[in-house]
Structure formats: C-alpha cells, structure tokens
Amino acid sequence: SAGARDREPLELSALVDVDAGTISREIFINEQIFRAEMDNLFARAWLFIGHESQIPEPGDYFASRMGSDPVLLTRDSEGEIHVLLNSCRHRGMKVCRYDSGNTLQFTCPYHGWSYSVDGELVSTPGELFGVPQFHNAYGGKLRRENWGLVRVSRTVNYKGLIFATWDDDAPAFEDYVGGFMLWIDNLADTLAGVPAGTEAFGGVLKWRVKANWKFVAENFLGDMYHAATTHASVEAAGIGPAGANSSRHGTSPEALAKRRAIQHSTSFYLLGHGATDSAIEQRVPPTFADHPELTEYFADLFAKKVEIRKANGQHVGGHGPATLFPSMSFHSLGFPRTILVAHPISPNETELWRWFIVDKDARPDARDWLRGYYMRYSGPAGLTEQDDMENWDYATDASRGAVARRYDYNYAQGLGHSQDGPIEGTVESVHWSTEENARNFYRRWLRFAEGQSWASLMDPCSVKKPDVVA
Ligand code: FES
Ligand code: FE
Q1: What is the pTM of this model?
Q2: Is the CB of residue 93 below 6 angstroms from any atom belonging to ligand 1?
C-alpha cells in the first residue's frame, strides 16, 4: 500500500481540518503517520492493560499489548502489579509465549535468560537459572541488575482496571481522564454502583480486522448515527432479552424512541475522549421474555444505583458507548458492560480484544445469561460487532484507492450546534447525534501525532471550543 505520498514530508495539520469538518483519507493508510502514532501517541498515552481479576494470585500473568509492543501484566510475590516489555534484553525473543498463567519466572526460549515476575534478570547460585553459563560465557561480569526486562514507568489500578504509560512526564491518570471518569465508573462499579465490585469473565476474545484502529475508536466515541442503518438486521432478529419486537437492549421500540427524544446529548470532552450520555433513569431496565425473575433482578439494581447516586448528590448520567482516548472503547449501557481495545498492527490491520465485565456477586442465572448475550452481541462471532467490522474493513480499503485517496471524508455533522454539557469540560450537541466527538478526538490526535508537549496536550484552551448555542 506504500505509495509516493508515504515518502513525502508530512504536514499533518493540512490533512486534518477539523474546523471545516474534513479529514483526509491519508491518515488511515499512511505508513509514516502510523509510525508517528506509535512513537508520539501510543508510547506516551495512558493505555488499558487488563483487569485485576485476571491476575489474582502471586506469579499470575496476562500477556497484553501497548500499541506495537507486547507487554506482560504480572503480580509479584508481594502482590505488587507490574507491566513489563515482553522482549528479552539479549536478542529480543518473547520471554513469555502464553496468553496467561502462573509462573515463578519467565525463561527466554532462545538462550535461556530468566527473569522474575517483577522483571529482574534472575541470579541463582547454582546457575541452573538466570543467565546460562554466567561464569563460562561472561566471566561472571555481566551486570545483571542493568539487564532486567524493560518496566513500564507508571501503572494505575483504578477500581480493578489496570492502566499504564511509558511516559514519565505523563499527567496523573485522573487528570488525563478528566470528567470522562463518570463513564469509567459506570464500567468499573457494580450495576448498583458499588465501587470495585466487578470482574472480567475468564478469557479475552482476540481477532484481527483489516481496518485502521481509528475507525474502531470513533465508532464507539459518539457515532450513534450508524446504529439504525448498520444494526437494522440485528434489531429485526431480536437478539436481546425480550426477543423479537424489542431493541437489542431489551426495551420496546416506543421506549427506545422516548429515550432518543430526551437524549440529545452526545457529550464530548476537551481531552479527546468521547461518549454518549444518558442517565440511568432514561435507560428503561431490560425486559426478559423468558425470565421474568431477571427482569426484576436488573430493575432492582438500576433502582439501587439511582438511589445511591442521588443520595451522594452525583450526576446519574454516563451510561452509553464510550472511548477513552486513544483506543479503549467500552459499553456501559446499564446492564451490558464490555471493553474493546483496538491494538494497531499496521495502518490497515488492527487486533481487537474484547473483555466482558460482570458484578463479582452477580446471581448465577444473571451471570449465565450475560455470558451468552455478550457473545451473541460482541466479539468475532457477535452479531452486532460483525456489522461494525464490515464497515471498518471497507472504509479502510476505500481509503487506499489511488483516486479515492484524493477525496476527504465529511466530519461536519453538528458543526456549530453545541451547548455546554452537564459535566465540567464537556460540550454536548443540541441534536441527538453529532460528530463533535470525532472532531475533538482528531484535534487531540493531531497534537499527539505532531509530538507536542504534555503542557499543550493537556491544555483545553489550545482546543478550539465549537460555537456554543446560547
Ligand atoms: Fe533471550 Fe537470547 S534472546 S536469551
Ligand atoms: Fe455499531
């Protein structure tokens, strides 16, 4: 796919004219831009690594990724969590080739260097482990303390969700997230709003699509526009709890229309994250055609959450699909909660990872029902996800056409139709749907891709606030 334009010096700001609502197709296929994304964005931003419940015991590990780098999420004998580059310091071989497990140490399959779960190059008296032939081969002179696995600078465990950044200068995770934390809370808290009471179902679904990672991110950060067209067949088939004649989320078409009428608010964040906002009261609890006891169970949890939030004087919103900039998308709709991370492999290939989240104390029948629903909905075999994947693949392929490549995409929906949102730092559309979220994502994307300083990246004033309707 590399063309002459890949070798020309890049002028990124000429490709992304957010204020005019146009973006060049080039940013979805260009190799040079992809490299700038890896160096300037993925090696600096806070990224989601995994869920604490995946590594409950000392010695547990889960193999994850940060941009183009494979990493290991581990728990050491003291219970501390680490994120380590999964690459041997000798010649780079992966020191761990399993997806997850429990171990005393990682032994490199190439020449046998061994590392403890906290990343130290091991030294043991009998030389059976550690560096093979330490005395014969290195005269005992290798300074093992300098050759441990590369450790990620900073990690955060936020209510069981583990995030990490390579950048020592990155702002605190809470500052990076800003007012978007409400959506993260709705993902990480229980359905009734109890903090840190969730876990990930065992096993992460992983598959590759022939699509640029940004199409995935922007699909979840505010594109409510696609649902009625793209997912029409899913709605017709009735994949939700109430079966046919109901939405995917188990509510009647009338209830859905009512919600849309009040939910004009696709909120957007000056930090590049994006989400659709609706309050839990607006999300009619699901109706289960064959399990009335589950209808009652979920309605009760919804009611509890409203009660807790109101007692604490908190906004009851933040329920909707969302993307934490740059690449962690998730659903926190009310009852289904899933995470989708788009790991960039190349400009036109992305590895998608799906986690499914459930209350630790969920009733067994609710847990079983959710497991089935999650797989019917999301992941490579999920009906809704398949609809979306097809769009991302074709859009990426179309961006490569020699002629097609000359024509910009339209990101003008809702330009000039915004108002201040209910949460600090947000603006929302006066209409039900807007592309303000996507425009804002690309404003921040541009500043990252250009390699700007954190002061500039975190300054909302350097982002042009859209015309706010009085
Ligand atoms: Fe790991 Fe040589 S590459 S020991
Ligand atoms: Fe979709």
Answers
A1: 0.94
A2: yes
